[in-house]
Give the backbone structure.
Amino acid sequence: MEYKVKPFVAQVRSSEGSSAVAQQVASFIEQEAVDGWKFVSCGNIDTTIAGSGGCFGLGSKPSTSTSIMVLVFKR
């Protein structure tokens, strides 16, 4: 059995709501189903993006935290 994990980023306008996100997720799942992949679950991966020290401290950037939504498939 194979598993595949793919990131998902919703594209939502200010006039749209959660139903637009749900429709995008459903469409994403349907696209994978064409190739025989079955949806298993979705979740979030929290991670830290490393900052940079800059040049002698000039232009340095601090580390930032981010959350990435992923969809898990199997076939």
